[in-house]
Amino acid sequence: MMQRVEFRLVRPHEKVLIREIAALDRLSVGADAWSEDTLSEECGRDGGFVLACLTSNSELCGFAVFSAVLDEGCLNSIAVCERFRRQHIGEGLISEMFEILRKQGVKTVSLEVRESNAAARGLYEKSGFSCQGVRKNFYREPRENAAIYTKNFIKE
Ligand SMILES: CC(C)(COP(=O)(O)OP(=O)(O)OC[C@H]1O[C@@H](n2cnc3c(N)ncnc32)[C@H](O)[C@@H]1OP(=O)(O)O)[C@@H](O)C(=O)NCCC(=O)NCCS
Q: Residue with the nearest Cα to atom 29 of ligand 1?
């Protein structure tokens, strides 16, 4: 990694940071992005998490939104700012997420991703997720299949 970064959970009152995360999410996934209100609710909710990666000057590098319900975790969204990509920040977000979810008693983490999203699929595979199959025409605008990935903590 080129510079020191920190990973920390976002709190619901951090309006400026939440606005930046919402903007980065919009840039990455367009209309399917999380709104500021929904992100803020997610930080305050039991079992909901918004994890940010920040530089020492508090500049946002990336984020992950994930949740835990009983022993199942779900990665809902992840993005890294373009200028910070390919510096292992995505991997850092996922390994921090694993640590948080393990502490919550989670045993399996799942996610969906556009079939054509080679960067995200590369990141998930490098992080130990395995592809379980596809969900046909899961995404719209443009219509596309979702690849479904899971990661199991039990065998570790
Ligand atoms: C997917 C994304 C989060 C990856 O973040 P990142 O910080 O650049 O990823 P990392 O540097 O941690 O990469 C980890 C591994 O993932 C794979 N990878 C990452 N980007 C890749 C790319 N563009 N092409 C192929 N493989 C890639 C590589 O295996 C990489 O390891 P390596 O650099 O040692 O080869 C980033 O590209 C992004 O924000 N994309 C837009 C948002 C998005 O698509 N989110 C997922 C759907 S919700």
A: 122
How confident is the model over 85-105, as pLDDT tens digits? 999 999 999 999 999 999 999
Active site includes 36? Answer: no
CATH of 5-152, one of 3.40.50.1100, 3.40.50.300, 3.40.630.30, 3.40.190.80: 3.40.630.30
- Alpha carbons 14 and 89: distance in angstroms, whole number: 21
State pTM to two decimals.
Answer: 0.96
DSSP 45-79: STTEEEEEEEETT--EEEEEEEEEETTEEEEEEEE
At 107-123, the pLDDT tens digits run 999 999 999 999 999 99
Task: Name the residue ranges covered by the structural domains of the chain.
Answer: 5-152
Instruction: Please confirm, yes or no, whether 112 is among the known catalytic residues.
Output: yes
The answer to whether residue 154 scores a pLDDT higher than 80 is no
